[in-house]
Specification:
- It is built from 12 helices and 6 strands.
- It is α/β, with parallel strands linked by helices.
- α4 packs antiparallel against α6, α6 packs antiparallel against α7 and α6 runs parallel beside α11.
- It is globular.
- It starts with about 35 loop residues before the first helix and ends in a 13-residue tail after the last helix.
- The protein binds phenylalanine and cobalt (II) ion.
- The site of phenylalanine has 10 residues, from α6.
Amino acid sequence: MAVEPVVYGASERPPRGDYARADADYTCAQDYAAYTQADHDTYRRLYERQEALLPGRACDAFIAALPSLGVKDRIPRFEEINARLSKATGWEIVGVPGLIPEVPFFTLLANRKFPVTDWIRKPEEFDYIVEPDIFHDMFGHVPLLFNPVFADHMQEYGKGGLKAHGLDACELLSRLYWYTVEFGLIRQEDGLRAYGAGILSSPGELQYAVESPEPQRLPFDIQRVMRTAYKIDSYQQTYFVIDSFRELFEKTAPDFTPVYAQLRDAPVLPAGRVAA
Ligand code: PHE
Ligand code: CO
């Protein structure tokens, strides 16, 4: 069955992936033979650059799990990763042609399947790409799926997403994803570190998020997070800081139904600093 391509917002840009290859659940086989030597080189160079920036900036759990991705000098095969990942936490990665709609996305997560875009950026996009590609999805998201607490949180998020869809609250819940899974910071004993994939896969934002005096860094609060708008095309102006994945798991465990009801008509706060 053919599926509709998905783009961010009201973008004029055509979608990058080939959605004709996707099944009804939006997944597709990783077309490994389609990667060129240039694609593998792009992956290797992105990996090398990013790995060098991790000490002192990425959280310990991420650094500990990164070697589980295996090869770094070429694009890994999804099966190679799955052999280790399924043993570690029961998760599995599945190929997708790009962004997918809410319900199929949440359904995959609820079943401990993480969608990974199977194509890689062009050499001229080496420093910046708006859409997630295989480097963002693989390097940014997959390592923490090897962490048991974080892995469980991702499944709960998927189940919560299906519930939010029924309550027409996906926009509120998407802010939670944005400020945690994509752009979350964590306080370790030895300092502030990144655990969000959007930070960990970006050389500029990794340094900025952890070290710059510019952005505001707020303690993690569900209501504050869900009320805060975000920008997809610049470094974040606000980050939310957790003390542990356990805290994230526990603070997101309560029923969000009353929270959604309360926030439905609350004004959205700007992505940046708010006057006291
Ligand atoms: N507890 C949330 C609810 O009841 C679901 C959820 C869990 C959402 C974890 C995000 C992360 O809707
Ligand atoms: Co992402």
